[in-house]
Amino acid sequence: MSGGHGGPITGSVLKARTMHLRRKLVAGNWKMNGSLAALTELGPIAEAARAAGGVDVALCPPFTLIAPAVARSGGLSIGGQDCHWAESGAHTGGVSAAMLKEAGAKLVIVGHSECRAERGESDSVVRGKAEAALAQGLQTIVCVGESDAERRAGDQLAIVARQLEGSLPDDWKDGELVVAYEPIWAIGTGKVATPADIAAMHAAIRAALVARFGDLGLRIRILYGGSVKADNAAETFAVADVDGALVGGASLTAESFVPIVEAAAAS
Ligand code: PEP
After folding, report:
1. pLDDT tens readout for residues 231-256
2. What is the pLDDT of residues 123-152, one digit of tens each?
3. Whole-prediction pTM value?
4. Does the first or last residue of the chain, that is N or C, have fewer Cβ atoms within 10 Å of its Cβ?
5. Whose CA is nearest to atom 7 of ligand 1?
6. CA-only gyration radius of the chain, Å
7. Beta strands in the chain (DSSP E)
8. Is 182 tagged catalytic?
9. Does the active-site annotation cover 91?
10. Which of 112, 131, 176, 262 does the annotation list as catalytic?
């Protein structure tokens, strides 16, 4: 299935048509944290995910931990935090989507704001990475989000619209493409966007997806990311068009991650 163009669609029609279309996804991003010893966290997370039911749960540890994490995943999807746009070649330090797949990864995050900032990744680079990941059949989480200065200037909707336009590939299979809205000022800071801010942005993202892909845009999950914790997860998941979360710090232990998974399952 690939993207096509559909006609205009109103807010209430959109809401009615999207109910039950999308199962929630909670994905953990360990960033440059973790160790073989830390993989003991996976057992209780997998057990809680099974018990909660009805929610997809994924963890993205550093590259070196993917294969051992797959071996003890207990049904969790294990993924990478980045991939190269090329399949192979002279790219020192690079890891291709094919390599992730061979290690047992089922998904990959691309365009995280830390990669965009530290490595100067443009939207077209992010799109190349997403295309490479999708070509390998990996579920692909494409991150977008504005900086603090951009929000203070009132430019957040325009910035995210531009990132979506430039970063999302045209062709993908149903279920494989996921968008994560992560306001940079909320990542790792403890500042969470208000439900109203999240609702406004997720509605704008949904409208952009439908404008570009027609009804297929209704099936793309939109995750919120930015200091999601046990104490704010339920109110975040209650927001329309929030189809799950991308979780950094709170995904590092079962104690902090499981309540988020349970909140998603209960929403
Ligand atoms: C992230 O890095 O994707 C993230 C959302 O981090 P945190 O949950 O720690 O803010």
Report:
1. 999 999 999 999 999 999 999 999 99
2. 999 999 999 999 999 999 999 999 999 999
3. 0.92
4. N
5. 248
6. 17
7. 24-29, 55-60, 77-80, 107-110, 139-144, 177-181, 221-225, 244-247
8. yes
9. no
10. 112
